[in-house]
Fold this protein.
Amino acid sequence: MPGSDSRVSVIVVDVAPGREPEYARLARELDALLRRKEYGWHELIQDQLVPSRFYDIRHWASAQAAELCHHDPDVRAIWQKLDPAIDLRLTHLVDLAALVTEAGPIVERRRGGDRRTGLDRRVRNVGRAEGDRRLGTDRRVGPRRATERAAGDRLVARAREAREQARATFSGFKVGAALETADGRIITGCNIENATYGLTICAERVAVFKALSEGYREFKRIAVVADTEEPASPCGPCRQILWEFGGNLEVILANLHEEQGTFWLKDLLPLPFDARLLGKDR
């Protein structure tokens, strides 16, 4: 709105039938937290024809307030209680919480602040055609591209958060990964080192194994974050595991400050070995 720094986000939320009261209760808890910390306020509208569908409207005090909220551990704690309990499906409709300059919205924000643990996730895959690869800035900034960028920001932000949990006792090289499932869930992982170096496991494999152990079988893409000036690409074993269980995933590489490049896994792992070579279906 002209003359105002307020922002609005709108998400369609579909919950498992019968879990509507639990979701509404936690949504009210979120609203109370947003108001108490002066981030803004949260409005929830239930569809009268489809009771399991809600319209989540977040009114942010400012773009900066939205960013602070996305980093807030108290906010994340609410969604950590919510996501496992309710089979949420979310469609992100509007995100006007991005920072704004005199020239207009910054579509390609610096990657630094979104937790994407709750209602800021999308379900529909609107990625690029298979085989396309993007490096650096993409000049297409229409509504579809803006949605893709915002979603990419959120995935990278979750990978940055996961990196903080890394157990890199020996190398000091921390890595975080965030894997997006086909239905928009995000499973994170970090590298965990061991005194017996052969038992060390990378962030990407931690994320994949966590997702598989929780019953997920289809994935869209993964973000990998390290504190490096050059992109830290997945190692060979991680590429093999990602291909084995995810196929031609979109791989987003980033550091602590910005996204460094996006690739298709088939470009990182040409001529992969998989079940087809054993005469079995993938």
In short: The chain has seven helices and eleven strands. Confidence is low (pLDDT under 50) at residues 97-144. The domain at 131-282 is CATH 3.40.140.10 (Cytidine Deaminase; domain 2).
